Amino acid sequence: MESTVQPNLPRQAFAARHSLKENVVRWSLITVVLLFFFGFLIIPLVSIFFEAFKQGVSVYLSSIVEADALSAIRLTLFVTLIVVPINAVFGILFAWVITKYSFRGKNLLITLIDLPFSVSPVIGGLIFILLFGQHSSLGRWLISHNINIVFNVPGIVLATLFVTFPFISRELIPLMQSQGTVSEEASILLGASAWQTFIHVTLPNIKWALFYGIILCNARAIGEFGAVSVVSGHIRGMTNTMPLQIENLYNEYQFVAAFAIASIMSLLAILTMVIKVVLENFIKKQTR
Amino acid sequence: MTRIQHSKKKQSIPGFGLTMGLSTLYLSLLVLIPLSLVFIYSARLGWTAFWNDVTDPRVIASYKLSFLTAFSAALVNLVFGLLFAWVLSRYTFPLKRIVDGLVDLPFALPTAVAGITLTTLYSEKGWIGKWLPFDVSFTPIGITLALIFVGLPFVVRMVQPVLQNFEHEVEEASASLGATSFQTFRRVIFPQLLPAALSGFSLAFARSLGEYGSVVFIAGNMPFKTEIAPLMIMTKLEQFDYPAATAIAVVMLVISFALILLINLIQWWSRIRYASH
Amino acid sequence: MSIEINHVSKAFDSFQILNDINLTIPTGELVALLGPSGSGKTSLLRIVAGLEQPDNGQIVFHGQDLTNAHIKERQVGFVFQHYALFQNMTVFNNIAYGLRVRPRKIRPSRAEIKAKVDKLLRLVRLEPFGKRYPSQLSGGQRQRVALARALAIEPKILLLDEPFGALDAKVRKELRYWLRELHESVKVTSIFVTHDQEEAFEVADRVVIIQNGKIEQVGTPEQVYNHPANPFVYDFIGSANKFEGKIINGTFIDGSFETEAPIDSNIESAGLGFVRPYHFVIEKDRSGKYSIPVQIKHIHAVGPTVHLEVERSDSHNVLNIEINWEEFSLLNLKKDQTIHIKPKKVQIFAV
């Protein structure tokens, strides 16, 4: 540091010394980040597959095609197929309302939409037990009419809807805010309806961000554990989703089977990340 | 209602009434009404019963544990999140694209998968656990590790865009005025990162407080020692003690709301401070 | 179609953007709203289009009150400052958009749409560019697409918000000329907003000067330029030298400078005098009380017009003077020289 104030030091030497110091800082920071990255992300990821294939490919395959596992996969897909489209539609709706109109209380609305992010998933499950369980009059009435929502598939759907509620609007709002309302105004002035404007003008401008939001929402919907765990009632082959099946197998010391299902879910997560990287380039182009 | 009527008049794009109505309906049905039920339900318990439930020593121990582990994890994530964001936006190095792409993995990886994996890795015979001189599984350290894993992307993803949009001229101006790189970072860059870093920290903290799936496996769930608050709710529910479960949920919700308020205040403060940006 | 704007006011929070605006535009006229930024001109345009609602007042198109009518019913063509072209559509599809979104009953056939778009492409001289995307066009070309798109719906009224604001100087000049020509051929009642006076004077039939949400003057370019209605307009249009003084018995006095004031009043009042830089006669010796002693501070002698920056010997205020090169070389002026200047034409306003 002394050298920086010495006026007669040659410029080049000064620059060299400076960059040497900077190089040391740079490479030690990079090393720390890479070590952390490998320790915290890569090793766990690799170990999932290692544990899954510990007893060979045939054991791995047989744990996946096992009846309970298959029914868990089916239920997870079923729930996801309901949850993601509903939250996609309403996510678009939220983003549209927030970015295309001006009204008071907009920030409050944004905060309320983000609420499920900050609420424990366990509470996300609890609220539907309180609403539809034995303890509420609505719940008792429904149960007496043979409509079981909690400890059943509808409860899992509701809890998953709650937990993945903000995912899509979160991705859309910043993009749509940066795009403004001028294109929509131009479309309305040319005689288009709000719906035509949305389909022809807004949607093409947000399609990649929407796809990205759907991918993230999808990943969370598949993997949600806490909320679903509360409302499911853990009935094997009936209300077990993939994460719940993993828990059951793990608690029964069937580690290979647990990690076999975990490995499928990890592949989905990695795939999500790959799609994410690809999509980000497209989204950047649309932000301008 | 009169306010909405008033604003309806000035919208240049039609459809405000319908879309606003549908949005608030869905929000109310799925989020607001169910969440308010927690408060309504616990209000019916009466004050003494509520107070007894939330101040039960075992419950208190779980708040303390949750708060401590979530705070430590968020702090670690603040430091490493800043580091990741800095390295990813400033330097080029081998594997950078992969690191950048996989930082978000904890968002996409199911928490139960993270839970069993970390438990296996850090068990006495696990790949990492066998090299460590102290126990990780079934201790607060294990819980913190799981929460670090879950919360890592928050700070990175909040800070990275700020760093990427940072004007290089400002740094060069600082350097031309004779500041060292460290001085430039501390006096020029860091103050502008602070709001984003704090928001990321608060988000990671909020998420960690409520986290369940990745923690229950590694925690061991021993009363007074490694029981986190969300697990207490779960335990009370399994015992069909709904009042107690709801009472604990109320306390956690209040903490969550306080954190949301804090995040909004930080963002409001940074908007005022850096309004020109 | 004529436009009547009656007593229109608009406030945002406590800030009055438009204050009791009254303006009538006869059918076929091309009017420029000219004013500094923040004067409210864009808000007025958006109110006429229906993009914003006024707090008070009426918007009347051809005798029909459309104040509360939806944008769609107004049938206005609107050209945005930054074009607002649909990035995901080709030039052709951009222009065809307004026709294609019509309800089936009144929607033209595909062939009709194609014929119409081709005609508009010819009109804006972009025939070869129909298949391109907006991002593949230059700024001037995009602006022409925006105009063609607005004209495709055969608007009764055309509104342009700073249409050339985002273009560079050379393209601007070309497009100005072209807009004038285009207006001659389509003859649709048009309003355009600008902060560039040269643009307003060159293109418009009439110019409306707006400041702080109020109309300062309405008139043809010549009227506004040669007979500014008040000090603001004089100061805003072209450059001007300002004299601050008082008016006593028909005489304007500012320091050692005096001139006749055409204001008939025996009461002493504060007054403002304006002189254009080229309305000065330069004298080496003082010829009477109407001339002002000044010292030359700076000479900028590039081009046919010479700019002099002079300082008044009495008040030390700086004045700008323009004389032609011949006169300059004849007088043989030098820096720091003291001369006398006599205004040929002074406009006096009582304040």
TrEMBL record, chain A:
Main location: membrane
Transmembrane segments: 27-50, 70-96, 108-129, 149-168, 209-235, 255-279
Membrane topology, record value: Multi-pass membrane protein
Localisation: Membrane
InterPro entries in UniProt: CysW_permease, MetI-like, MetI-like_sf, Sulph_transpt2
Keyword terms: Membrane, Sulfate transport, Transmembrane, Transmembrane helix, Transport
Domain ABC transmembrane type-1 residues, every copy: 73-280
GO terms, molecular function: ABC-type sulfate transporter activity
GO cellular component annotations of the record: plasma membrane
Pfam families the record matches: BPD_transp_1
Subunit structure: The complex is composed of two ATP-binding proteins (CysA), two transmembrane proteins (CysT and CysW) and a solute-binding protein (CysP).
Role noted for this protein: Part of the ABC transporter complex CysAWTP (TC 3.A.1.6.1) involved in sulfate/thiosulfate import. Probably responsible for the translocation of the substrate across the membrane.
Protein name (record): Sulfate ABC transporter permease
TrEMBL record, chain B:
TM region positions: 21-43, 63-89, 101-122, 134-156, 188-206, 242-266
Pfam families for this protein: BPD_transp_1
Domain of life: Bacteria
Keyword Transmembrane helix: yes
Record localization: Membrane
Cellular component terms per the entry's GO annotation: plasma membrane
Entry-linked InterPro entries: CysT_permease, MetI-like, MetI-like_sf, Sulph_transpt2
Membrane topology (UniProt): Multi-pass membrane protein
Keywords carried by this UniProt record: Membrane, Sulfate transport, Transmembrane, Transmembrane helix, Transport
Gene3D superfamilies found in the cross-reference section: MetI-like
Residues of the ABC transmembrane type-1 domain: 63-263
Subcellular location, principal: membrane
Entry keyword Transmembrane helix: yes
Alphabetized GO MF terms: ABC-type sulfate transporter activity
Subunit composition and interactions: The complex is composed of two ATP-binding proteins (CysA), two transmembrane proteins (CysT and CysW) and a solute-binding protein (CysP).
Family named by the database record: Belongs to the binding-protein-dependent transport system permease family. CysTW subfamily.
Function according to Swiss-Prot or TrEMBL: Part of the ABC transporter complex (TC 3.A.1.6.1) involved in sulfate/thiosulfate import.
Stated name of the protein: Sulfate transport system permease protein CysT
From TrEMBL, chain C:
Keywords: ATP-binding, Cell membrane, Membrane, Nucleotide-binding, Sulfate transport, Translocase, Transport
Listed Pfam families: ABC_tran (PF00005), TOBE_3 (PF12857)
Residue ranges occupied by any ABC transporter domain in the UniProt entry: 3-237
GO CC annotations on file: ATP-binding cassette (ABC) transporter complex
Keyword Translocase: yes
MF-aspect GO terms: ABC-type sulfate transporter activity; ATP binding; ATP hydrolysis activity
InterPro entries: AAA+_ATPase, ABC_SmlMolc_Importer, ABC_transporter-like_ATP-bd, ABC_transporter-like_CS, Mo/tungstate-bd_C_term_dom, P-loop_NTPase, Sulph_transpt1, TOBE-like
Highest taxon in the source lineage: Bacteria
Keyword Transmembrane helix appears in the UniProt entry: no
NCBIfam families (UniProt xref): 3a0106s01 (TIGR00968)
The protein's name in its UniProt record: Sulfate ABC transporter
Organism: Sporolactobacillus inulinus CASD
